[in-house]
Amino acid sequence: MSLVVQKYGGSSVADAEGIKRVAKRIVEAKKRGHQVVVVVSAMGDTTDELIDLASEVSPITSGREYDMLLTAGERISMALLAMSIKSLGHEAQSFTGSQAGVITDSVHNKARIIDVTPGRIQAALDEGNIAIVAGFQGVSQDSKDITTLGRGGSDTTAVALAAALNAEVCEIYTDVDGVFTADPRVVKKARKIDWISFGDMLELASSGSKVLLHRCVEYARRYNIPIHVRSSFSGLPGTWVSNEPRVGDDAMEQALISGVAHDTSEAKVTIVGVPDKPGEAAAIFRTVADAELNIDMVVQNVSAASTGLTDISFTLPRTDGKKAIEALERRKAQIGFDSLRYDDQVAKISLVGAGMKTNPGVTATFFEALSNAGVNIELISTSEIRISVVTRQDDVNEAVRVVHTAFGLDSDSEEAVVYGGTGR
Amino acid sequence: MSLVVQKYGGSSVADAEGIKRVAKRIVEAKKRGHQVVVVVSAMGDTTDELIDLASEVSPITSGREYDMLLTAGERISMALLAMSIKSLGHEAQSFTGSQAGVITDSVHNKARIIDVTPGRIQAALDEGNIAIVAGFQGVSQDSKDITTLGRGGSDTTAVALAAALNAEVCEIYTDVDGVFTADPRVVKKARKIDWISFGDMLELASSGSKVLLHRCVEYARRYNIPIHVRSSFSGLPGTWVSNEPRVGDDAMEQALISGVAHDTSEAKVTIVGVPDKPGEAAAIFRTVADAELNIDMVVQNVSAASTGLTDISFTLPRTDGKKAIEALERRKAQIGFDSLRYDDQVAKISLVGAGMKTNPGVTATFFEALSNAGVNIELISTSEIRISVVTRQDDVNEAVRVVHTAFGLDSDSEEAVVYGGTGR
């Protein structure tokens, strides 16, 4: 009997109606003959409400107790889901992350899974039951304290359980019909992708696509667990993410270009007048690293021969911008630059596709499309299967649309439907 | 260093303000040099809201998943309380029932504590921390499933932890100033009791007093843990419940009468025309027991010599009334009675006090007071330290007041303050 892991996000179980709809979907999978393990997020806004409550009693927004608080949300949704399934005449048992054997390190609020020992889940399945597991949470190996996995944690729980239980597929149910060739809110003619490789999905995720988080896809690739991203509202087939297209599925060929992603959450920092000598870049990025800031794109051009000075730019999450500027200013003398420029009115547009490796025209087509639309390019960064540019934020929607059209990604119709918010 | 267990009910932590007020009170105890273990209920209406949600997705209102759902409430309140204490500069750690070592049987929704292994609590105390424990919940010894302790469960958690940790006292913080000689909502001149014995408190609890539940007091008596019931709002000294008054505390002598309790939640069933022969009562109460009904008072008077028939009356929770009538009707022929009478417009008034054992005038004074007020007595039942009567429900408030006055229990002023709802 094949085993399926299904994950439902917060928007899919936002209220009692949502829970009942999801319960029916789970029972359908069971009736089709699968063993079913379900990972569920907290209902709708529950987590935000808990965070609000916490802010009223304490300025502390991290640590052991914060994790204990936040994990209450999944406890509620998983118990309700199990009860709803039982009322449909099927046996279900719910398990906390700890009970499900999700073992993590001790870094509260963004713990990493280090082992999964799903003995109780396996026992529930062996008895013919459906197992419901709290997403987003685990238990620390050392202290046996409750931990949370941070952003996208429930998806990671699902993939980790799928790997530990040797599942056939990990189905991630969300409020969109799958992964699209661009954000359907920006590009009305975005197409749903039937199949995408782990590699391309990873690039999309790190370029601003929010359907799957990088961490979850990385985990799935490591253990070779196919992910099927689909809507809990429509029930339509969604997007398969795996190493290879499924055998016999003609539609699922490697596309030249998988999609266009964009990201408006970053800011650009430019360090002006850096002496062009060894060790300068190292000093700058050591400073940034010491401040525990995650940077994204880094660009340095050749220096002007006349001055011996160069400019270095990087992008990072806008929320970290102030800290980066402060950290750099403090070491201005040691590093020896002229000045800093900070710009948070930027956007990043990325074209992703393994096909571009063997197709030299891609870069040219990309830049021509932007140029024809009058979009100015401020930074460029490329990998083997991705090209990213930074532009003015005001231009981003137009830029995504023209690039999407230029690479023939437009659908004949406007097929995307967005059903709700996003889970965690 | 002496160890104090404090328990705060749902009304004490109904909102962020309540949590902050309770956090300050806990820190004060710590500053006075105590080791402090705190048991906390779910915030205000949280549990009711979860029950409402459950009723929307499933008709099932019991079992493993229901317990998993309900225990989310304490997880929220205990984490917030720990965070609030930390923001006051003291170290606190929260523990679920399972983490605190509250081991129960496997009877979901009304599990019984069978062992307490508070190793993690002790370790937290040894490190100088305040330990916050979720009330009302435990983990089953056999299946390692989450269980709840049923009504009054948090008080029982507190007493059980106090026993296991050899605490000096178990302080039960609630929304009234202590145990009163009568319900202050009925008797304005009710007096707060400074000290009451376990025995009298047990009788009051089973006679309708709701401040402490029978089960919690029984546990405290078994392990000889003094309970101090007091208000989390006023901070005044409350009522001590223990085996003996504390040495040197003159005010705490055994009173003749501890108090007057009343209960309007019961119904009266009368079985009319029962043959007065051996085995009849047994057949009746076996029938009731088979229907899993808990009966309270049972009264049978001598039979009328002329008929050889007698009447048997009993009281039971009104919510069980219908089941009792149905069960008895089904066995009418076997038992051989004439008819059944059911009356849910009754109330029970009880006078409690160990002093009455040695004071023969108590019963007379009690009945005279009721008679003078025109209150008709329908049933009488007595124990060594309690007299209970059943009257019309319409008469109950007046009956309680006149009895309270007749035994000199009236305070000179109206001292009782009721601050909020009641926790669980």
From TrEMBL, chains A, B:
<feature type="binding site">
    <location>
        <begin position="7"/>
        <end position="10"/>
    </location>
    <ligand>
        <name>ATP</name>
    </ligand>
</feature>
<comment type="function">
    <text>Catalyzes the phosphorylation of the beta-carboxyl group of aspartic acid with ATP to yield 4-phospho-L-aspartate, which is involved in the branched biosynthetic pathway leading to the biosynthesis of amino acids lysine, threonine, isoleucine and methionine.</text>
</comment>
<keyword id="KW-0028">Amino-acid biosynthesis</keyword>
<feature type="binding site">
    <location>
        <position position="47"/>
    </location>
    <ligand>
        <name>substrate</name>
    </ligand>
</feature>
<dbReference type="InterPro" id="IPR036393">
    <property type="entry name" value="AceGlu_kinase-like_sf"/>
</dbReference>
<feature type="domain" description="ACT">
    <location>
        <begin position="269"/>
        <end position="345"/>
    </location>
</feature>
<dbReference type="InterPro" id="IPR001048">
    <property type="entry name" value="Asp/Glu/Uridylate_kinase"/>
</dbReference>
<dbReference type="InterPro" id="IPR001341">
    <property type="entry name" value="Asp_kinase"/>
</dbReference>
<keyword id="KW-0067">ATP-binding</keyword>
<keyword id="KW-0547">Nucleotide-binding</keyword>
<dbReference type="InterPro" id="IPR018042">
    <property type="entry name" value="Aspartate_kinase_CS"/>
</dbReference>
<dbReference type="Pfam" id="PF00696">
    <property type="entry name" value="AA_kinase"/>
</dbReference>
<dbReference type="InterPro" id="IPR041740">
    <property type="entry name" value="AKii-LysC-BS"/>
</dbReference>
<dbReference type="GO" id="GO:0019877">
    <property type="term" value="P:diaminopimelate biosynthetic process"/>
</dbReference>
<keyword id="KW-0418">Kinase</keyword>
<protein>
    <recommendedName>
        <fullName>Aspartokinase</fullName>
        <ecNumber>2.7.2.4</ecNumber>
    </recommendedName>
</protein>
<keyword id="KW-0457">Lysine biosynthesis</keyword>
<dbReference type="GO" id="GO:0009090">
    <property type="term" value="P:homoserine biosynthetic process"/>
</dbReference>
<keyword id="KW-0808">Transferase</keyword>
<dbReference type="InterPro" id="IPR054352">
    <property type="entry name" value="ACT_Aspartokinase"/>
</dbReference>
<dbReference type="Pfam" id="PF22468">
    <property type="entry name" value="ACT_9"/>
</dbReference>
<dbReference type="GO" id="GO:0009089">
    <property type="term" value="P:lysine biosynthetic process via diaminopimelate"/>
</dbReference>
<comment type="pathway">
    <text>Amino-acid biosynthesis; L-methionine biosynthesis via de novo pathway; L-homoserine from L-aspartate: step 1/3.</text>
</comment>
<feature type="binding site">
    <location>
        <position position="74"/>
    </location>
    <ligand>
        <name>substrate</name>
    </ligand>
</feature>
<feature type="binding site">
    <location>
        <position position="185"/>
    </location>
    <ligand>
        <name>ATP</name>
    </ligand>
</feature>
<dbReference type="InterPro" id="IPR002912">
    <property type="entry name" value="ACT_dom"/>
</dbReference>
<feature type="binding site">
    <location>
        <begin position="210"/>
        <end position="211"/>
    </location>
    <ligand>
        <name>ATP</name>
    </ligand>
</feature>
<keyword id="KW-0220">Diaminopimelate biosynthesis</keyword>
<dbReference type="GO" id="GO:0004072">
    <property type="term" value="F:aspartate kinase activity"/>
</dbReference>
<dbReference type="GO" id="GO:0005524">
    <property type="term" value="F:ATP binding"/>
</dbReference>
<dbReference type="InterPro" id="IPR045865">
    <property type="entry name" value="ACT-like_dom_sf"/>
</dbReference>
<dbReference type="InterPro" id="IPR005260">
    <property type="entry name" value="Asp_kin_monofn"/>
</dbReference>
<dbReference type="GO" id="GO:0005829">
    <property type="term" value="C:cytosol"/>
</dbReference>
<comment type="similarity">
    <text>Belongs to the aspartokinase family.</text>
</comment>
<feature type="domain" description="ACT">
    <location>
        <begin position="351"/>
        <end position="424"/>
    </location>
</feature>
<comment type="pathway">
    <text>Amino-acid biosynthesis; L-threonine biosynthesis; L-threonine from L-aspartate: step 1/5.</text>
</comment>
<feature type="binding site">
    <location>
        <begin position="174"/>
        <end position="175"/>
    </location>
    <ligand>
        <name>ATP</name>
    </ligand>
</feature>
